[in-house]
Amino acid sequence: METTNNTDKMLKGFFSEQKQEIPDNGFSEKVIRKLPEQADHSWIVWIFAALGMVISIYLGITLGLVQHLLTVVQHVPYYYLLAVVFWFPLVGSGFIYFIQKKHYQLI
Amino acid sequence: MMSNTDDIRWVTQVALLGDKNAFDKLTCKYQSSIRRFFLNLTMGDGPLSDDLAQETFIKVYLNISAFKGISGFSTWLYRIAYNVFYDSARAQKHYDDIDELAIDNQHQTLNEFSAEKMDIHKALKILRKEEQTAVLLFYMEDKTHKEIARIMNCPLGTVKTYILKGKEKLSVYLTKAGYGNN
């Protein structure tokens, strides 16, 4: 049992000494250049987005949600709405900042 | 540290949208380990291992929708690499016709990793091809027995036997060569 462990240790040591990272040196770029062109499937995203929007609008109108929302908005003081609108860039910037931070941490 | 979640996200982007940027990220992440795997299997033939690695990544791109996610993306990638290597070996009779002297010369002139790799290639040459693959995947690429069985498409017991036999042979070889005595 001990011999097996020693052998394992020796082999792990030997292989880890030989293990090295190979620098990319343009390899990935070469692979990407050689990839065959494939049909662009991004239309799937747009189809589903459009479908989702149509369903939302339809349900909003038939269930009276849009009318209800408009009524609510009409009763809210305009400076409240302005304050909400001004918060968008701040919240958005904060969100992007955290995403970028996470991205750099991953790299 | 990039996680398996990133792999799944990139694979999905490639499979659904044919997103080459996502595929570039996968290639950058795995190029080193796949090229190292081939470099050791081809006994240090740098140009050949780069060609095989390139073929592997192109096959991955073309067949990415066949990835079911049962095993990790890395295991699936190695499985394709393993198939590419053995297809190439069968087609070119690589093992039988290999000109060791030519490879050694090429190795010394073209491959910057050559000097330190000579020992490992000499050691690997004493093993059978299946033992080489199993030992490399286990000790060099840190794959588990189960993952190696998936990569080599053989029973778990067979993989364990390959590794055990490889271990025994390498142990004798390295001890004789004086490894670990310093």
Main attributes of the structure:
heterodimer; A: 107 residues; mainly alpha; B: 182 residues; Rna Polymerase Sigma Factor, Chain: A; Arc Repressor Mutant, subunit A; 2 domains; 10 helices
Q: Can you characterise this structure?
A:
The complex is a heterodimer of chains A (107) and B (182). Helices cover 79% and strands 0% of the residues of chain A. Chain A has 107 residues and is mainly alpha-helical. Among the domains of chain A are: 45-75; 77-107. Chain A is elongated. The mean pLDDT of chain A is 82. Chain B is an all-alpha fold. Chain B has helices at residues 4-17, 20-41, 46-62, 73-92, 94-97, 100-110, 114-125, 129-140, 145-152, 156-176. In chain B, α2 packs across α4 and α9 (145-152) packs across α10. The longest helix of chain B has 22 residues, at 20-41. Chain B starts with a helix and ends in a 6-residue tail after the last helix. Chains A and B meet through α1 and α2 of A and α1, α2, α3, α7 and α8 of B.
Amount of helix of chain B: over 70%
Proportion of β residues of chain B? under 5%
C-alpha Rg of chain B (nearest Å): 17 Å
What's the pLDDT, averaged over the residues of chain B?
A: 83
Q: Major β-sheet of chain A, in short?
A: none
Mean pLDDT of chain A equals: 82
- Written as H for each helix and E for each strand, in order along the chain, the element string of chain B is HHHHHHHHHH
Uncertain runs of chain B with pLDDT below 50, 5 residues or more? 100-118
Query: Which chain pair shows the most residues in contact?
Result: A-B, 31 and 39 residues
The CATH architecture term of the largest domain in chain B is: Orthogonal Bundle
Oligomer: heterodimer
* Uncertain regions spanning at least 5 consecutive residues of chain A: none
Query: What name does CATH use for the topology of the largest domain in chain B?
Result: Rna Polymerase Sigma Factor, Chain: A
C-alpha end-to-end distance of chain B: 35 Å
- What is the name of the CATH superfamily of the largest domain in chain B? RNA polymerase sigma factor, region 2, helix turn helix motif
Shape of chain B: elongated
The number of E-state strands of chain A comes to 0
- What is the total tally of β strands of chain B? 0
Radius of gyration of chain A: 29 Å
Shape of chain A: elongated
Number of helices of chain A: 5
